[in-house]
Amino acid sequence: MNRLIKYFILFLLIILNENLLGQYYDFGRNKVQYQKFDWKILRTKHFNIYYYDEMGEVANIGASIAEQTYEEYKVRFNIVISHRIPLIFYNTSNQFEQTNTTPGLIPEGVGGFFEYMKGRVVIPNTGSLHDFKHVIRHELTHVFMTAKLYRVFKDHRLPDDYYPPLWYTEGLAEYISTDEDSQARMVMRDAVIDGYFFNLENIYQISGTFLMYKEGQNFLEFVAHKFGKEKVLQILDNFWMYSSFNKVMEYTLDEPLKDIDKDWTFYLKRKYYPLIKDKAPPDNASEKITNFGFNFSPVPYEINGTKYIYFVANRDGYSSLYRVKEEKTKEEFNEPELVLRGEKTQELEAFHLFQSSIDISKEGIIAFVTKDGGTDAIHFFSIKKNKIIKNYKNQDLISISSPKFSHDGNRIVFQAVDQKGFSDIFMFDIPSDSLVRITNDIYDDHDPTFGLSDNQIVFSSDRTAGKYKMTYNLFSYNLITHHINYITYLNSNCYSPIISPDKKTLLFTSELDGVRNIYEMNVADEMFLHRIKRITNFITSAFNPVYIDSNEIVFSGFQNFSFNLYKTKLDKPAIDTEQYITMQIDSTAGIWEPTSLSRSAEKEKLAYQREYSIDYAQSQVSTDPVFGTRGGAIISLSDLLGNDKYYFLIYNTAQVQSDILKSFNVEIERINLGQRANYGYGVFHFSGDRYDITQSDEYFFERSFGGFFLLYYPLSIFDRIESDVSIINSDKQVYTGEIERKALMVSNTLSYVYDNSLWGPTGPLDGIRARVLLGYTSDIKYSNVNYYSIIADYRQYFRLGYSSAIAFRGALFYNQGKEARRYFMGGSWDLRGWPLWSIRGQKMWLSSVELRFPLIDQLNVKFPFMNLGFFGIRGALFFDAGSAWDTNYLTTLGSIGAGIRINLFGALVLRYDVGKRIENNFNDFQPRLFYQFFFGWDF
């Protein structure tokens, strides 16, 4: 019991009093606040709209969409939400990724989220009003669903502490917020025909994936089709009746789950299998160039007679720039060659894979776009010099995509979203470094390219008016007359225009048959003819086609839930007969105006003022006859934007009832995350018995109080400077009344932290993590304490394969001076095989080498009452060595062994190691094996 209490007290010290022990610290990438937002509030009848800077027009449009959605949903869900719903708008995904409403890093591709705790809806505007409306409706579905469930539980006097499975909640949000679009058709067609569709019994295996969203949406469409639209929401009305969601569905739909599942599967087969009759997957109707990963934006270039395809891709966890030979030399696929590695430096922080982001000039200059700090940047890479020769970045242009060279290579045209949230076309003159804005309006203009001459720009836009209002059609812009004219007029979205090398045809993609296929338009007498021909007939979609020559194209295609590169001949006949469509420009076609918030609906505009609410509150109290009553509580408060946080901690370490009053411990801390430099400060009072790691089995009573200041300054997403200063008044009694030590300590530390690691299911697989810390602690009143500290920790991961690596760690911990604190190690986190925290000293070193490899990617266990899935089961072979000492180095310790790691629900890693300790100054192995079970991520 005493040993358990000893470790418990030490653990409390580590977790709750960072000022006392500097051994435990964090790595991790940084969420950088690149700019300070001037937040404002637009209050409407049902919403508080939070926006900033020049987003006023977009905020008004978003408010109008939200109010219209509210009026629709209150009828659909049969519920009225009495309070104003907070909607937080960000301008582009780059700025959305800086939000502090959620603590973690937001990856590329997240389109918004609903935060359940405070009911916040956080949405980026990408420049497309169609997408903006979709995301607002999607997230408001979560708001109304949550309110509906709360009322259902309250009406039946039940606790509202559980929700439907994720596939239903996200599927419902997609089902209600939008009709089935080309993206949903593409994914579901591919899943069913290529055989990776997951039915209801197994849908838990894809929880949290994009496929889950689309399967959930499709299932609810099936429910509406077979059982009636009212059944979709009746599931929520009946949710209180059973703890099993499957039972709720069986009751609502009045069929056994296995029959529902069987009918849904048959419904999908009958819907999609007939497509095989006259359509084909991309790899059946074209030649596949790559066969792995997610590959986008191909462009060809010839070097010394060899044709290469340059493209951006994620093939190993990083988005990067690659090239691959166009012609196959063998039956196997050519292995792509890495040109530029992304996601390891701020300059190339992230390639935007799902956007057109690359082009090549005739002189061999590659223009490509990456995220670079708070905005995007265009980089110019010379193939001949094999390096970046120029960069262009404009703080007013937050998001950039689709760079395309002019025919002479002196200019590029591209799409960008500015501070106002407008998605417009820009032209950059390379020799003069001058920028010209081509369009400036609320319409979503993108995919620009130079047309039949360098005085013409062809682009895709939702400015279509008339009977096809708001669809994306192709337009031309004359740089001399500044006139915009229709090129296509279709009831279908058209994207990615490109002119053939001989300027006789225009190539583009369109969703005329439900997914994106490639179409061609002829050119005569420098005029676009209003007749198009489909040249591919894929079951799924094709993206960003470009010409290799006038008769061959290369493109990115979707199949088997991956994106690969394909090429095809234009004179190759389609699977079905050639299909021509003649277009007639609608006489009413002109411009359309987006609906904005009317003055009657608008209540007021205010400057943002902080309003605080509880993030979480947790307490625990325990009583026993020996140690009395102990316990504590922690409360966290923050403002709506998550920029300002307060933490309140109180706990009691009394071991007998008579010590309760003098053993209360309190800490109050404030953390501000609203600027690039994150800072915090606070005060504390700690009192009670402490375990002394200087002596093996000694305790002492200590009362300490003081304050501290913290400063974190991120240099980039990968590295930061950390600093803290604390003042601590400490009264320490080893034996009451006999040995006492008083001190007024000032402690300073300065750290540099670097982390560009890439993680697998149980820990890092690639990259570097490093920390250097310098510290000094001094008793400025009694001179009883005076020591300095050095910590150096370097970890590097060498990738051997997609999911295997060799990991190396070398660390040195050094304290020197009067009453210098001891470090400690032992256990699953450092020196494995040795008892937990049993090795101690003022100086300590540790080295580890570990081979990490996959064992089981997925393990499914079926029980009669439930199914369980375990993912990312990994193995390890390890060798550890280290030592700790005070003044004289005594012995070197080590261990060798093997282990297994299991990722549990993506939140916790269970570790089990077996091996032998290396004892007697590395002369002997432990006679028997050790067995060690613990938890935590790999180092």
Which geometry do the CA atoms define? globular
The percentage of residues in β strands lies in: over 45%
Averaging pLDDT over every residue, what do you get? 89
Spans of at least 5 consecutive residues whose pLDDT stays below 50 are 1-21
Radius of gyration: 31 Å
Extended strand count: 52
Q: What's the N-to-C terminus distance?
A: 30 Å
SSE-based structural type: alpha+beta
Helical content class? 10-25%
Characterize the main sheet: 18 strands, antiparallel
Total helical segments: 11
Provide a descriptive summary of the structure in words.
The protein is α+β, with helices and mostly antiparallel strands and 939 residues long. Helix content is 16%, strand content 45%. It contains 11 helices and 52 strands. The strands form 9 sheets. It has an 18-stranded antiparallel sheet that branches. Strands 4-5-3-2-1-32 form a 6-stranded mixed sheet. Strands 11, 12, 13, 14 and 15 form a 5-stranded antiparallel sheet that branches. The chain is globular and about 100 Å long. The two termini are 30 Å apart. The model is unreliable at 1-21 (pLDDT under 50).
